[in-house]
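Final report, closing paragraph on structural work. Over the funding period we assembled a curated collection of sequence-structure pairs, and we close with a single example.
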Amino acid sequence: MRIDVICKPEGGKRCERTLENVRTALDNMGIEAEVHLFRDRRKMIDNRVYVSPALLIDDTVRVAGRIPTVEEIERMLRERPRYQKRMQQQVA
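Its predicted structure, as stored:
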């Protein structure tokens, strides 16, 4: 799984708080993922994101323009088909 946080170059604390929430959610759920922080306007334009911070999970924009909460990020990760499949395999 790949998670990207995309911000403007002058993003400041909003980007850092988003990245911190992502890492907390991953730790709470015990999931390993590639987490990247981009401070690049070109990357924003390539992903059609015009407000920051933006959260992408597996190259899909999930949140833009606000800081998602830890619970919200966990809910997004649980919705992923791979996560659901993994949980079914652990139960069986």
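The helical segments are 13-29, 41-46, 70-79, 81-91. DSSP finds four helices and four strands in the chain. We thank the funder for supporting this effort.
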